[in-house]
Write a structure and sequence with these properties.
The complex is a heterodimer.
Chain A: E1 12-16, E2 28-34, E3 37-44, H1 52-56, H2 61-69, H3 78-91, H4 97-125, H5 129-150, E4 159-160, E5 163-164, H6 173-195, H7 198-204, H8 212-218, H9 222-226, H10 234-237, H11 254-257, H12 264-288, H13 300-309, E6 312-320, E7 323-331, E8 340-344, H14 346-350, H15 354-358, H16 366-372, H17 377-380, E9 385-387, E10 390-392, H18 396-416
Antiparallel strand pairs in A: 1-2, 2-3, 4-5, 6-7, 7-8, 9-10
Chain B: H1 6-12, H2 31-39, E1 59-61, H3 71-75, E2 81-84, E3 89-93, H4 102-106, E4 112-114, E5 131-132
Antiparallel strand pairs in B: 1-4, 2-3, 3-5
Classes of the chains: A alpha+beta, B alpha+beta.
Bound molecules: iron/sulfur cluster (2 copies).
One iron/sulfur cluster binds next to helix 4 of chain B.
């Protein structure tokens, strides 16, 4: 971790959050400060638990797709892809190739939209509101495109277990290409406005650094990891959907700037590079898209019956705009609902990087550092422990004790039979 | 010091707003007054933007062909559909519907569709216009 001259807590303690104007979603930062400098940083998530998994265990798999889609308001396809990939493995459903391609196209459009949204938010956190408006104006184009292709701006409802629900037809290709041309220009414009700007450089260069070594220890995902030079991307490492057929590589900042510093600036660079990469990927996907069916099992009633008979467990993964998302699903024969559903949102893996990023920086840097990992706080919160009106944190030792107790209980009930 | 956004800012001064215009440029003192003026040809409203072709809007339901199989209820993620067992029909609550369109795909009689109608706001969740039963 970073060397900080003053190790002893200074005695000044400040809290930011859980609800604070500088934070888009509820999370709490606990900071030891000396003057303006952060000596020690910690954070407390778990402020916006929504019980989504609980709801999922009371719905059949088709219903859960739409629920999963609503885990995040920005990643409209991320969670549904991960969930259906898990279910498809359990039920051994072969997704048609064309459906794979359509999934990837929507996934890449989502990445463009998410990164542009982030660029706007980051600019706003820096006080650079003109760039915020510029990024969001550009983003409007991809929202229109997604609406044209899927029907809605958010919550695309494109994914079905075993394929996709709507086609992307040849007549729609010119409209897509029109948008891609627009983004070619927009990329140049945004790269100039963000990367060449003196203010952005002064605020973001060498601010909120996550070194390669720290990143190796903390295992962040997505652009947060890649900006520190870690080469990982689910699309490249474990290709799925249409990605195996594509020319796709890890986007690390050295591709543009020739070096990796792991600061906020590098995270801007990586996301901009990924916008450019997504444009190229959409073009490749359109070019190579084969004809064929959209769904393995076209009739939803037949699909429901098949899923009722399926049993087993699987993990579904997807490279979301923020990094790897993982869904664990377990189905039992004779049950419509999953017996277990666990969601790991990408921000969960990125949270810990906040600590080395913040320590040693100034209080005024918190908004941009917090935003630089593009946190999705409500998507991440899975558990909140409240007992008699008090919040508690389960320690590792306590969890272990609970687990041992459960094994004993099961053993006791087995021997009693 | 370089500020590459400056040319973009200056050129924006000469561009039209990028967003869809509101029906009236300013909030009128009374909406009914404005509508009267529009009827008399004294004022003009900005026309609404057309709904995209694939938009999933308010539900349409053909009660005649529905056989009351309740399959739509089985797949509705939002519990927006209510069975009426006495007559073997169903009822849709638009305020609860998330417009996923899953019910339209499972219906064996194709009596469901999502229209392009998207202005469904009301003060009352159970307003007549937000309950579809025919
Ligand atoms: S569109 Fe979706 S939410 Fe609405 S009634 Fe049909 S299944 Fe339910
Ligand atoms: S699925 Fe169709 S036929 Fe069956 S109850 Fe629903 S609307 Fe009626």
């Amino acid at each position: 971790m970073k060397t900080i001259e003053v190790k002893k807590p200074s005695g000044y303690f400040t809290q930011i959050g859980p609800a604070h104007p500088a934070l888009k979603e509820p999370v709490m930062f606990n900071l030891d400060v000396e003057g303006e400098r952060i000596i020690k940083a910690d954070f407390a998530p778990g402020m916006s638990h929504r019980g989504i998994e609980w709801m999922g265990l009371r719905r059949n798999c088709i219903q859960v797709i739409y629920l999963a889609e609503r885990i995040c308001g920005i990643c409209g396809i991320t969670h549904s892809i991960s969930f259906v990939r898990a279910v498809e493995q359990i039920a051994q459903i072969q997704v048609p190739v064309r459906a794979h391609y359509i999934r990837s196209i929507v996934g890449e459009l989502e990445r463009i939209h998410s990164h542009l949204l982030w660029a706007g938010v980051a600019a706003h956190e820096l006080g650079f509101d003109s760039a915020f408006y510029l990024a969001w104006r550009v983003r409007e184009n991809v929202m229109d495109l997604v609406e044209y292709l899927t029907g809605n701006r958010v919550h695309y409802a494109m994914i079905q277990i075993g394929g996709v629900r709507r086609d992307i037809t040849r007549e729609q290709f010119p409209r897509i290409e029109e948008s891609m041309k627009f983004f070619d220009n927009a990329y140049d414009q945004l790269a100039r406005v963000f990367l060449d700007d003196t203010t952005v450089q002064m605020r973001c260069r060498d601010c909120g650094v996550l070194t390669y070594e720290e990143a190796r220890q903390l295992c962040p995902v997505g652009p947060t990891a890649r900006a520190s030079g870690i080469k990982k991307d689910v699309r490249v490492d474990h290709p799925y959907a249409g990605y195996a057929d594509l020319d796709i590589e890890y986007m690390t900042p050295d591709r543009l700037t020739g070096e990796v510093r792991g600061d906020v600036y590098d995270r801007i660079v990586v996301r901009l590079l990924e916008v450019k990469q997504s444009i190229a990927l959409v073009r490749q996907l359109l070019e190579q898209m084969p004809d064929g069916p959209l769904l393995a099992i076209p009739k939803p009633a037949v699909l429901l019956a098949k899923l009722k008979g399926a049993a087993g467990e699987a993990v579904g993964r997807h490279e979301a705009p923020r990094g790897e998302v993982m869904h664990y699903v377990r189905l039992e024969a004779g049950k419509d609902e999953p017996v277990s559903w666990k969601v790991k949102a990408s921000s969960y893996s990125n949270y810990l990087s906040w600590i080395p990023m913040m320590e040693g920086e100034q209080i005024a840097d918190i908004p941009i550092i917090a935003a630089s990992i593009d946190p999705c706080i409500s998507c991440t919160d899975r558990v909140a422990l409240v007992q008699d009106g008090n919040r508690r944190v389960l320690t590792k030792a306590e969890l272990h004790r609970l687990s041992v107790e459960k094994t004993r209980r099961i053993q006791a009930s087995l021997s009693a039979r | 010091m370089t500020f590459p956004i400056v040319p973009d800012l200056l050129s924006s001064l000469f561009k039209k707003p990028n967003t869809n215009p509101f029906p009236a440029p300013q909030l009128p003192p009374t909406v009914t007054g404005l509508l009267d003026e529009v009827n008399q040809g004294k004022a003009e409203l900005n026309p609404p933007v057309p709904a995209p072709e694939r938009l999933r809007g308010k539900m349409t339901y053909n009660r005649e062909t529905c056989i009351g199989c309740n399959l739509c209820i089985k797949v509705c993620p939002a519990h927006a559909i209510e069975a009426i067992p006495a007559v073997k029909k169903v009822r849709f609550y638009v305020s609860q519907c998330i417009q996923c369109g899953q019910c339209t795909e499972i219906c064996p009689k194709q009596c469901l569709a999502l229209s392009g109608e998207f202005l469904n706001a009301s003060h009352d969740r159970y307003d007549r216009s937000l309950i579809v039963e025919r």
